[in-house]
Design goal:
alpha/beta, 6-stranded parallel sheet, 4-stranded antiparallel sheet, 10 helices, 12 strands, about 40% helix, about 20% strand
């Protein structure tokens, strides 16, 4: 059932993207192309990690089930400039109409996987994992979080229903860390962990006293983080967050955190340049 729902959500988002791009017809293609069939090549134009090939293929098969995509790479594979990633065969009208939507998904997802891998590699040899956040493109979260996993990262909570995270405004509204944690523990099902975002050493001590399951050290300096880790002393999982990205990851990788969450994985990763080239009509082979 979960897999079916997953496929249903993916198809829904892909169909919405296709409707955005083709609300009535592809005027350019319909003006010059008839019923010819052909093939075209998916080419990498720079080095990176591929993610989203199944999504790329599904865009075309939603338009026409007869489309055949011959994949020469799989998600997680590295590609170099000039590599052929796939061959797509079918009605030329469909190849041209689906091209941009399919590439938009694949380039975005591959860019996230590529960026994530860079940070994951920087954390190799430490106890710390890199995880994403909810700072995702609206209606694109399912794809972006998948791409993070392909790149070697892990997923934080998927949405607001997925876990309890008490941030600064929750704490301010409740009146204190202790009250916020107590209210959350009373309300939330016992199977859910409670995470608390803290910004000062005093708040760290409050979160430990309140027996938070996860303590997020938000925008703390490396020196403050070391002190916080000492205070927590294994009594809660430790998450680091706050403008941590590829440029400064080295300053945080050996501080003893369990995870580092980075919105940059999804909101700042550049796309991976991929292109569909070499279209050939089958009767012209």
């Amino acid at each position: 059932m979960v897999a079916q729902l997953h496929d249903f959500l993916i198809d829904r988002y892909l169909l919405e993207a296709l409707r955005e791009d083709v609300n009535e017809e592809d005027v350019s293609t319909n003006a010059v192309i008839g019923d010819e069939r052909g093939h075209v090549f998916l080419i990498a134009k720079e080095e990176g990690v591929i993610a989203g090939l199944g999504v790329f293929e599904r865009v075309f098969t939603l338009l026409d089930e007869s489309i055949a995509v011959d994949l020469l790479k799989k998600d997680g594979d590295h590609v170099s400039t000039g590599d052929t990633v796939a061959t797509i065969r079918g009605p030329i009208k469909v190849l041209l109409t689906g091209e941009r939507v399919a590439l938009n998904f694949l380039q975005r997802m591959s860019g996230i996987a590529t960026y994530t891998e860079k940070i994951a590699r920087a954390l190799e040899g430490t106890k710390t994992d890199i995880v994403d956040t909810r700072k995702t493109t609206p209606n694109f979260r399912i794809f972006e979080k998948y791409a993070v996993r392909v790149g070697g990262g892990k997923n934080h909570r998927y949405n607001l229903t997925d876990g309890v995270m008490l941030k600064d405004n929750h704490i301010a509204a409740a009146g204190s860390v202790e009250k916020a944690v107590a209210l959350a523990r009373e309300y939330a099902p016992f199977v859910r962990k409670i995470e608390v975002e803290v910004e000062t050493i005093d708040m760290v001590e409050e979160a430990v006293a309140a027996k938070a399951d996860i303590i997020m050290l938000d925008n703390m300096s490396p020196e403050e983080i070391k002190e916080a880790v000492r205070i927590i002393d294994g009594r809660a999982l430790i998450e680091l967050s706050g403008n941590i990205d590829e440029a400064n990851i080295d300053a945080y990788k050996d501080l003893g955190a369990d995870v580092i969450s980075s919105g940059a994985l999804t909101h700042s990763a550049p796309v991976l340049d991929l292109s569909m080239k070499g279209l050939v009509a089958d009767d012209a082979d």
